[in-house]
Amino acid sequence: MKIKRYLTIIIVLLITLLVSLISNGTQEIQKANYELFTVDRIKEGYHLFTNKDENFIVNTYISKLSFEENEEIDIFSTLEYIGKKKSVQIWSVGHSYFNHNIFDGSINYHKNIVLTILTTTRLIKGETYILPFIKEGSYTDDPKDEFWKKYYTEKELKLPSGNYTFTASTGFSLDEDLKEHVNLENKFKVSVQ
């Protein structure tokens, strides 16, 4: 009986350690990805879409709104905390508190992978957090297997001809229970000829 009790305690501790490592690793990956991009990328001529509330400003930048087929689409967003406190802790399920989605009316070209791990991030007032577009998603037994394989192996965002709705949106709450959800999004149309 004592052995079962010790084994149970050890298993619980190992699971707790594993979840902690995954969560920390995810935050480090986010931090590394965001540090790769600087505000210097905000170039003249980029289209700007903005949404804000009393606590946050979300800006989305895209190089243009009309592209040639397979031309690189440069898109990224920024998030800034502008509330009354010096900093704010935000809560999100998964590895990202911000999402970029692309939809052509029938296909979602960016399928967010959501982990069921609750993570926290602290945002400092006045700091601009750069949120690059990063492809994520998966496919199995899809009639377009070859397309998806090419799409996910290319780092750059390139799309086939069509009309697309791009949405850049927050995916976090101001509380651990995920009841104070922050809903800010920038939505716009992009055409590829």
From TrEMBL:
It comes from the Bacteria. This is Uncharacterized protein.
